[in-house]
Design brief:
The structure is a single chain. This protein is of the alpha/beta class. Helix content is about 40%, strand content about 20%. It has helices at about 15-30, 45-50, 80-85, 100-110, 125-130, 145-150, 170-180, 195-210, 225-235, 270-280; strands spanning about 5-10, 35, 55-60, 70, 90-95, 115-120, 140, 160-165, 215-220, 240-245, 260-265, 285-290. The strands form three sheets. It has a five-stranded parallel sheet, with helices on both faces. A four-stranded parallel sheet has the order 3-2-4-5, with helices on both faces. Strands 7-6-8 form a three-stranded parallel sheet, with helices on both faces. Strand 4, helix 3 and strand 5 (about 90-95) form a beta-alpha-beta unit. The longest helix has 17 residues, at about 15-30. It is flat, with a radius of gyration of 21 Å.
């Protein structure tokens, strides 16, 4: 291996940065333990780090002691979760990404206006579960262009579409094109739902894959946007591997390769990137270059419970 190329932008998006800081600030303000429903973001090393600081991750609110403080993850929740929190007298700090909240609001508006909503997303993903919970009787979930082709809806229904924020941009556009072919007057959101960070990281990894023999995507298996980055890199012809950290790298991946590209999903912190770079520096690689494709300058305010 002779050279390492770093994709830019990479790593934390504004929503993830806000969510992780929410847990850290809550620990300072309210003291440990702070309970977090589900993984605050889909990155195992981040979760383990927050656990070491006093965060307790639970699957459901029934595991949280009555009256305790609980943080809701960046992926958003269905309305029934807020009802459960009120019933248990929990102090709720909502770390839902504002861009996910936008999709929830769109779902409520379309349903209120009498539309049947086609939600493009991955079944079982926490973001999808939360969005569908806003209007379960008015939403049909699809996950691929083929499912769009086979979609059957009641004749005469007004139809709208929404999407999960962390999907492949290219595949989602394909699904939307198929939906428009089937339902010519289908309505979409005022602005597309796939978040700026997902789009920017996919744009950057396309450029990276054309310059590198092997692309490493730092991100956990359950991270939708990280998986999409690995798929996009592979589609551009690079050998592509998804890793949590440097301990999962295999030297055999680089046989005959001269350049490795590194990127990281929107829930992966920069300190994991530095550790992966260190892996290659320890093997004699000194040429480390950043390939900047898009500039980002997006920030979200913390939840009101933690302001000031």
């Amino acid at each position: 291996m002779e050279r390492v190329l770093l994709a830019a932008p990479r790593g934390y998006c504004a929503g993830v940065d806000r969510a992780v800081e929410t847990v850290e600030r809550a620990l300072v303000k309210f003291g440990a333990p702070i309970y977090v429903r589900k993984q605050i973001v889909h990155n195992l090393p981040v979760v383990r780090d927050l656990e070491s600081k006093g965060a307790v991750f639970v699957e459901e609110l029934a595991e949280v002691p009555s009256g305790a403080t609980v943080i809701l993850s960046a992926h958003g929740v269905a309305p029934e979760v807020y009802e459960q929190a009120r019933a248990r007298d929990l102090r709720v700090v909502d770390a839902t990404c504002p861009l996910v909240t936008k999709v929830h609001n769109e779902a409520k508006k379309f349903a209120r206006d009498g539309y049947h909503i086609v939600l493009i997303g991955h079944e079982g993903h926490e973001e999808v579960v939360g969005t569908m919970g806003e209007a379960p009787a008015s939403i049909t979930l699809i996950g691929s262009p083929d499912e769009a082709d086979g979609l059957m809806l009641p004749v005469g229904d007004k139809v709208a579409y929404l999407s999960q924020t962390t999907l492949s941009v290219d595949e989602t556009n394909d699904v939307i094109d198929r939906l428009r072919g089937r339902f010519p007057v289908i309505q979409g959101p005022p602005r597309e739902d796939i978040c700026y960070a997902t789009q920017n990281r996919q744009t950057a990894v396309k450029v990276l894959a054309e310059k590198a023999d092997v692309v490493l995507v730092i991100g956990s298996d359950n991270s939708s946007n990280s998986n999409r980055l690995a798929e996009v890199a592979a589609a551009r012809g690079a050998a592509s591997y998804l890793i949590d950290d440097e301990t999962e790298i295999q030297d055999s991946w680089f046989e005959g390769a001269r350049t490795v590209g590194i990127t990281s999903g929107a829930s992966a912190p920069e300190w994991l990137v530095e550790r992966v770079i260190g892996y290659f520096r320890a093997r004699g690689v000194t040429d480390v270059e950043e390939v900047r494709v898009v500039e980002e300058d997006v920030h979200f305010a913390l939840p009101k419970e933690l302001e000031a």
